[in-house]
Amino acid sequence: MQRLIQRYPDSTRVNHWIVALLFLCAALSGLAFFHPSLFFVSALFGGGPWARILHPFLGVLMVLGFAVLFAQVWRENLWTKLDNEWLRRSGQLISGHEDGMPPVAKYNAGQKLVFWVSAICLLVLLVTGFVFWRPWFADAFPVPLRRAAVVLHATAATILILSVIVHIYAAIWVKGSVRAMTRGTVSEAWARRHHPLWYRQINGDR
Amino acid sequence: MPSLQSLDIAARSATTAPSPGVRRLPEVAKLIDVTSCIGCKACQVACMQWNDLRDEVGVTRGVYDNPADLTPASWTVMRFSEVESTGEGGAPKLEWLIRKDGCMHCSDPGCLRACPAPGAIVKYSNGIVDFISENCIGCGNCVTGCPFNVPRISKKDNKAYKCSLCADRVAVGMEPACIKACPTGALQFGSKEDMLEYGAQRVAELNERGFTKAAVYDPQGVGGTHVVYVLQHGDNPSLYHGLPADPHISSWVSLWKGVAKPLALVAMVGAAAAGLLHYIKVGPLEATDDEEPAREHDETV
């Protein structure tokens, strides 16, 4: 049995899965109103009116959960010069060639992008969502603002869903990643291969 | 009100398949001749009575408008506008313009386009736009979709309400309640064709009386409406309590409900499909146990 390295403490993992579950519920209940072909999804939430009632609460809880996650990991997601280089060569990685990629610390540029795009989208979703939240807040805002808010809300939701698809696929694609968020650990080989700078950092050697 | 089987449906909210529509009814219209209106509000009372609506008793605002605005229980209200202008010889003139406000029953209804709940808003083939309250989810998109600021959401049940043009009466060959109550003939009801013809007659009469800018208000920006006005100042509809001169469905609504949503949906499905194809073609990235820290060997399998 190979050596395992702790990547996420219990608190981060639990928080991540709370946010993930809330995302799933908020996304599904929102998609029900997104396109007629998806309205049937509202049945999962007890029908149209219930999906409409629950959706904003699910969304706000998700944002609160993400805020905690944000506080836990934002430092390691700060953009560096190496990230530009990584992004420039990302095509090579996508075609399956990881060798020759710039060394990565705890997060690569793709992970950082998913993180920041999600954070910005959630902020937009939160602000615009309040603008047309019935029955409590919508009446406080003028109609033209509500029209724009609905479109911005749906746009941010689309971008967020797309980045989550990328996030989930990346976890499936890079073998050994899922256990980082389930058990909290990764193999030494995984860390060396995909995050060499982080690996060196936690081992204290160069 | 519940959907009426005797009226075929020309358009249904959040529905992509065709609605029942083998019968084709002539398009109807209500004509509101504001130049014959005396502001008696018999139409408001008739509307309350037929639709069994009793609004809460409000307070006076110092004007004749009562209630002050459309509400979930007041589907039509008389709007009184005091307009100062110059009459013959430049003498100041005060005009009291009275407009019966309510749903315009657009040919291209912004409410119906914006609504995400299947069948909560229908346009019958005779042109009447109706809210099927049992399908309403209370999101308020109809309010923002409407270019005339008409739908109102009830605080009691979170459903949207507005004038139904008495679709239930029209379905059985009767005229709307407001028409029946009007004592001056300011309200007329019939086929849209007949109403436009009657409106043109009224405009000609008004022209003779010196109202050279009189016109029928049937705004083409929303495909025409099934409630049309005869206005003595047809060149300036906004005099009548801000009736929009050229109403359109907001481009925010038409953009999103038009091309953007299907595109976004395709993008989401496309992203998931791209992931699957990538996994099949390129395969996963794996880190093997025996791998050297120097990362020498090629990872592709």
Salient structural properties:
heterodimer; A: 206 residues; mainly alpha; Fumarate Reductase Cytochrome B subunit; 2 domains; two-stranded antiparallel ribbon; 9 helices; 66% helix; 3% strand; elongated; B: 301 residues; alpha+beta; Alpha-Beta Plaits; 4-stranded mixed β-sheet; 7 helices; 11 strands; 26% helix; disordered C terminus
Description:
The complex is a heterodimer of chains A (206) and B (301). Chain A has 206 residues and is mainly alpha-helical. Chain A is built from nine helices and two strands, in the order E-H-H-H-H-H-H-H-E-H-H. Chain A has helices spanning 10-31, 48-73, 81-88, 90-94, 109-131, 143-173, 178-182, 188-194, 196-203; strands at residues 4-6, 185-187. Chain A has a two-stranded antiparallel sheet with strand order 1-2. The longest helix of chain A is centred in the C-terminal third of the chain and has 31 residues, at 143-173. Chain A is elongated and about 55 Å long. The two termini of chain A are 25 Å apart. The radius of gyration of chain B is 26 Å and the shape is elongated. In chain B, 26% of the residues lie in helices and 18% in strands. Chain B is an alpha+beta fold. Chain B has seven helices and eleven strands. Chain B folds into two domains: 9-249, Alpha-Beta Plaits (2-Layer Sandwich), CATH 3.30.70.20; 251-301. Chains A and B meet through helix 2, helix 6 and helix 8 of A and helix 3 and helix 7 of B.
SSE inventory with pairings:
The complex is a heterodimer of chains A (about 210) and B (about 300).
Chain A: E1 4-6, H1 10-31, H2 48-73, H3 81-88, H4 90-94, H5 109-131, H6 143-173, H7 178-182, E2 185-187, H8 188-194, H9 196-203
Chain B: E1 9-12, E2 28-33, H1 42-50, E3 77-86, E4 92-101, H2 110-114, E5 121-124, E6 129-131, H3 141-145, E7 152-153, E8 160-161, H4 167-171, H5 177-181, E9 187-191, H6 192-208, E10 215-217, E11 227-231, H7 251-281
Parallel strand pairs in B: 2-11
Antiparallel strand pairs in B: 1-5, 2-9, 3-4, 5-6, 7-8, 10-11
